[in-house]
Design goal:
- By secondary structure, the protein is of the alpha+beta class.
- The chain has a single domain (3-154), classed as Aminopeptidase.
- It has four helices and seven strands.
- A seven-stranded mixed beta sheet has the order 1-2-3-4-5-7-6.
- A hairpin with a 2-residue loop joins strand 3 and strand 4 (73-81).
């Protein structure tokens, strides 16, 4: 499987993936703010996805990540793996992919569930396992859920000093290695 930059044709499959996690994250599919953020990331080439069977744009998505670049700080705005593919390495592959593309020195930040949030411990463990450290508490989410920032310093981890690569049209991103099936 390949990590690709999402295309406009991936909007519906992306919303299908978002629908899977609405019970945990709250409404997204009909949320105009989420839809604008998704469209903006797709347009600028910072919406990374893994499609089922390496299919073309518009195929079912197995995982997706939205990245907001504001050098030297980069923010993961959203990361989800399809329920049927969790714990298969796809989330880790997406995180490591963006880490390799971010020029160092930099910092990668994600806002996730705060301590003790029911259903949020798996996400917290995932970010620690992928090299992030728990940091400051941030404002609660829209539903009042406690949230916390996790931060990962990027120093000498990149493949080169090139600016963050973004994809155009339906090209795969720079990472063409096989991922776990």
């Amino acid at each position: 499987m390949r990590i690709c930059c999402a295309q406009r044709e991936d909007l519906t499959p992306w919303l299908d993936l978002a629908a899977e996690v609405e019970p945990l994250f709250g409404p997204m599919v009909e949320d105009p703010v989420f839809r604008r953020a998704l469209s903006r990331n797709i347009s600028r080439g910072t919406a990374y996805c893994i499609r089922e069977g390496d299919g073309p744009a518009g195929s079912r998505l197995l995982a997706g990540l939205l990245l907001s670049p504001r050098p030297p700080v980069y923010r993961i705005g959203w990361l989800v793996v399809a329920r049927s593919r969790r714990r298969s390495g796809l989330g880790t592959a997406l995180v490591e992919h963006v880490v390799r593309e971010i020029p160092s020195p930099a910092e990668l930040v994600v806002i996730t569930f705060g301590p003790g949030v029911r259903g949020g411990e798996a996400a917290r463990r995932f970010y620690v396992r992928t090299g992030f450290a728990p940091a400051e508490t941030v404002e609660p989410g829209p539903s009042g859920t406690p949230r916390q920032a996790f931060r990962r310093r990027i120093e000498g981890e990149t493949d080169g000093a090139q600016p963050l690569a973004v994809c155009a049209r339906d090209e795969p991103s720079a990472d063409r290695r096989a991922l776990p099936a």
